[in-house]
Design goal:
Layout: E1 5-8, E2 15-18, H1 20-23, H2 33-43, E3 46-50, E4 57-61, H3 62-66, H4 75-81, E5 86-89, E6 96-99, H5 101-105, H6 114-120, E7 133-134, E8 140-144, E9 147-150, H7 151-160, E10 168-172, E11 185-189, H8 190-207
Antiparallel strand pairs: 1-2, 3-4, 5-6, 7-8, 8-9, 10-11
């Protein structure tokens, strides 16, 4: 019969016996699941610390403090504490952020992140913008304040000085749906628009 090896519990300091093959494992530190759980609860204990940058109070794990952590309350405060970085203001959200001088030399540092850069360079603000794009139905779509809108509806709203109602539609007089000059646009309601197209279809049938 294989003799067992005696070990000392890391938590309660009591001795316990394990097989030699098991004793070689680094995980065998406790005599029971209870001692292991109690040890973890102690390690998970928190202490109150003060952020070195902003001075705010924060709760951190004792284990984190032991390895030199728990000095800053956030990534922003940590960034402000690092030497060599400069403080900049995001061109989109106006929030402050830290950036290295070398990044500024490369032309970076206008935005605090990819989200702000995407929102700021969307639509008409994009250097490659060419006046929107044409939808499958043939209407021109443009970007206004980061949102996609139909150009003919937007131009009519600007002309009238009010928002169009869901029942109001814009008819293109020459039939070209992306020709959005004002003299080609005619405002009408849904029923009038349907009747107009039905009349046009009848006339086309007669001509054919």
């Amino acid at each position: 019969m294989t003799k067992r090896v005696t070990k000392i519990c890391t938590y309660c300091q009591k001795s316990f016996a394990v097989f030699p093959c098991v004793s070689k494992r680094s995980t065998v530190k406790f005599c029971s699941q209870t001692c292991m759980g109690l040890s973890r609860s102690i390690r998970a204990a928190r202490v109150t610390r003060t952020c070195k940058t902003c001075g705010k109070g924060m709760s951190v794990l004792k284990s984190k403090v032991k390895v030199g952590g728990g000095k800053y309350c956030s990534q922003d405060c940590y960034g402000l504490s690092r030497p060599g970085k400069l403080k900049k203001q995001c061109a989109h959200c106006q929030k402050s952020f830290m950036i290295y001088p070398s990044a500024l030399k490369r032309g970076e540092g206008k935005f605090c992140g990819l989200v702000c850069m995407g929102l700021a360079t969307k639509g008409v603000n994009n250097p490659n913008y060419k006046g929107g794009h044409i939808s499958i139905a043939g209407y021109r779509i443009i970007y206004i304040k980061g949102s996609q809108v139909y150009e003919h509806r937007y131009l009519m709203e600007q002309h009238l000085g009010r928002k169009l109602t869901p029942d109001e539609v814009i008819h293109h007089k020459n039939g070209i749906r992306d020709d959005n000059i004002m003299k080609n646009l005619h405002l009408m309601n849904q029923s009038e628009h349907i009747k107009l197209h039905q009349k046009e279809e009848i006339l086309c049938t007669i001509v054919i």
